[in-house]
Amino acid sequence: MRTALVTGGTGAIGRAVSAALAAAGAKVIAVCLPSDRASAEALLPAWHGQGLAISITAFDVSNAEDTSAALSAMAAQGAAIDIVVNCAGITRDAPLRKMSAHKWQQVLRVNLDSLFNVTQPLIDAMCQRGWGRVVNISSVNGQKGQFGQTNYSASKAGVHGFTMALAQEVARKGVTVNTVAPGYIDSPMIDAVPEAIRSEILKGIPAARYGSPADIAAAVTFLCSGAASYITGAQLPVNGGLYMSA
Predict the structure, then answer these.
(1) In the prediction, which pLDDT does 198 show?
(2) What letter does residue 208 receive in the DSSP assignment?
(3) Is 230 a known active-site residue?
C-alpha cells in the first residue's frame, strides 16, 4: 500500500483528493493547521465509515522548522511517503499598489515556500526506493494572471516552475512531478466572491459551471497512478475551458 501525504488535506479540494487517493488504495495522511485540528478530526468518522485509510496530522507547512519536525516524527514512526500532493493554499487579494508586504509574504510562504518545505525532505527517499509521485496544485490564475492577485498569481506560476525543474532532476529515479491547475472550483473560496463577480466569471467558462473538488481529485489520482508513469513536468488544466493554451 502506498502512503500519500496531502497538504491542505482537509480543505475543500484537499478533502476530495484525500478521499480519492484512499479510495484508490493509498494510505493517506491529511495535513491541516494545528488550529484546525479539531474540525479536521471531525471528518474521520465519515471517512473511516467508508473504509478509507485516512489519518490527520497537524503542522504549518509554511514554517520550515515545524514541517521538518513533523516529517521527522513521521519517519521515526515508520512512515515512508510515496506520494506528495501539495494542496495547501491561501489568498490575500489586493491591487499591488495597496498590497502590504505582509499579504505578499503570507501567500508566497503558504503557496510556494511550502512546496520546498514539504517536498525537499521526502524526495531523496522516493528516489532511493525508485518510485514516487509529486503533484502540485497551481491555479488557472497562475497561468493567465488575475486583477488583484499579484501575490497569488506569482505564487501559483512559481508552483509550475518548481514542478518542471524538479521533474528533470528525478525522472530517471522513477519519480514523476506534475502540476494540476484548477479553474474556479465550487468551494468556500469562490463563495466568498461577490455574486456580481461570480456571475461574470461563470459567463466566461465554456463548460458553463464551476468545477467540483472531485474534478480536481480525479486528475490528481490519475497522475499518482501507474497509468501516468510516463507523464512528468506537465501541467494539467482542469478549468472547464476557461483558459486554453497550446
Answers:
(1) 86
(2) S
(3) no
**How far is Cα 69 from Cα 240, in angstroms, rounded to an integer?**
39
Q: Which of 152, 184, 210, 243 is catalytic?
A: 152
- Strand runs (DSSP E) across 18-82, as ranges? 27-32, 54-58
The alpha carbon of 4 is separated from its chain's Cα centroid by a whole number of angstroms, namely: 12
Q: What is the CA radius of gyration of the chain?
A: 17
Cell reading at 69: 519536525
Q: Averaged in consecutive runs of 10 residues, what is the pLDDT profile of the chain (246 residues)?
A: 97 97 98 97 98 98 98 95 97 97 98 98 98 98 96 98 98 98 90 85 94 98 98 98 91
Give CA 198 to chain center in angstroms.
Answer: 23
Tell me the helix, strand and coil percentages in the chain, rounded to 5: 50, 15, 30
Domains of the chain listed by start with CATH number: 3-88+112-141+155-182+217-236 (3.40.50.720)
Cell numbers standing for residue 190? 469562490
